[in-house]
Amino acid sequence: MHCPFCRNPDSRVIDSRTSDDGLSIRRRRQCPQCGKRFSTIETSSLNVIKRSGAVEPFSRDKVMAGVRKACQGRPVTDADLALLAQKVEEAVRQTGLSQIDANEIGLATLGPLRELDEVAYLRYASVYQAFESLEDFEAAIADLRADHAGRPGGDVPAEA
Length: 160
Description:
Negatively regulates transcription of bacterial ribonucleotide reductase nrd genes and operons by binding to NrdR-boxes. By secondary structure, this protein is α+β, with helices and mostly antiparallel strands. The chain is built from five helices and six strands.
């Protein structure tokens, strides 16, 4: 790390602290040459490999935009979408990879979206799981019903 005052190519870390969200580290540094102190904020980079082969930085906004389409007409707020995007980013970062396929991000979105809104989940899953027939939708709905039946007080009426 170059000193911003004298451009010395070396510095000494005095203190390190993790940010509240756990996604960055703030380091207090001191230059051994001029003695001045400065802070750095370090984050790990996460890149997305698109279908075309292009690589771009991960964006929570893009996750939100993709899910927003599936949530049209549903009782889902922007705050709900922001929380969902945060959960997706945390799940993707936990893989430890610095580059991840765009399709993997879509698949990582399914779990949090299922918890948020089941209709939006079905819309989104129909794209990312490549539903090709009515049977694919029926299987996904049966899966949702089985989840409800397994929860305490989660009986789903047969007509639902």
